[in-house]
Amino acid sequence: MFKNFVITALIFALVGCGNRPYHGSDVVGVHDFVVDSYKISNGKFSILEMEGDPIEPFNDKLLEEYPDRIVDGDQLKIVVYDSARKNISEGVGVIGGNIGYQVSEGKIVLPDLPAVKVAGLTLREAKEKIEDLYENHLMSVEVFLAYEKRESQFVQLAGKVSTPGVPVNGSKRLFQVLAEARVPTEANLFKSYVIRDEKPLPVDLYRLVHKGDMSQNIVMHGGDKVFIADNSASNLIVLGEVRNEGVIPLPSGSMPLRDALGYAGGILFTGNKAYIQVIRGNLLRPKVYTISWKHIVRLPTNSMLLMPGDIVYVGATPITQWNRLVTQILPSLSIYEIFAKGIDGVIVGGVSP
Q1: Percent of the chain clearing pLDDT 70 (strictly above)
Q2: Considering only CA atoms, which of 287, 259, 272 is closest in space to residue 324?
């Protein structure tokens, strides 16, 4: 009886080491996985909502261009032409060439004029205002106005970029900013984002760049911030009966389950293809999907999608579990046999004449 008790205890102690699928009450089937996969296929914002981190809806006003207005710190290039009083033209040119016309406290100072307020005006509006002021003294004058330097109307960039800032003008859009910033092709655009007024904007950079979705090509404003994430900023994990267990980067925000198993080198012959499980969400209270290989092969790719943070687990076949259990138990049984024989020898030796 003692021997049977020891063997039973060893089996229960070691069976936990078998690579078995999970069968808890929180396991759901392929139907739930397909429904959630189609949510994932909708892109970044559906995924964020599934992760419990929703973002405000997209506003079409983000696509509207705006007038490019002069602000403090801008330096203007100004040329004034008047055929009757060339000294005015020359004076404006000399000052512009040597000092420049920098907007300070919203104003610039020109020869023969009081300080002119130009902040908040477009270049065209500022040109017309200066011409009107000069025409109070001159019969005919023409003003040419352009930006020499712009200090404040920049988009700031950080992360995986080689350019820290890109100037904007009221019509420059996100795609052009990313092109000028030379964003690397391997960047994680799913985890990248745009900040305006300290709030993230509902823009999917991956869909814009890789899917050509121009509905995400918003007009950029001075002071906007763009962060470009590293390739490894989001990932998933494949474990169990696969050739190469490990972490797989997920720069696009999603990946077909079939591709993930391919990256892991495929399922080993010891794997149980009827119990491929995807663990999603908080590990303390996860959602566990159980899927078979026939579902992966037969169902459309978009109905079998993984998202960042998912863990794919391939369990072992029952015979593999048994073989491993036997392999683990045999050394322990050998020790038991020695121990049991030792006890028998002691007992026999104690009662023998």
Answers
A1: 75
A2: 272
Q: Is 256 left (phi over 0), alpha (psi -120 to 50) or beta?
A: beta
Mean of the per-residue pLDDT values of the chain: 81
pLDDT at 12 over 80: no
What structural domains does the chain harbor? 2-54+233-319 (3.10.560.10), 75-149 (3.30.1950.10), 152-231 (3.10.560.10)
- Comparing CA positions, the residue from 299, 239, 310 lying closest to residue 268 is 239
Q: How confident is the model over 205-255, as pLDDT tens digits?
A: 999 999 999 999 999 998 999 999 998 899 999 999 999 999 999 999 999
- Which residues, including other chains, have CB under 8 Å from residue 75's CB and lie 6 or more apart? 100, 101, 102, 103, 147, 148, 149, 150, 151
Q: Which helix (H) or strand (E) holds 291?
A: strand 287-291
Query: 163: which residues sit within 8 A by CB, 6+ positions away?
Result: 157, 180, 181, 182
**40 φ/ψ angles, rounded to the nearest 5 degrees:** -60, -40
Distance CA 185, CA 336 (A): 60
Give how far the C-alpha of residue 292 lies from the chain's centroid of Cα atoms, to the nearest Å.
30
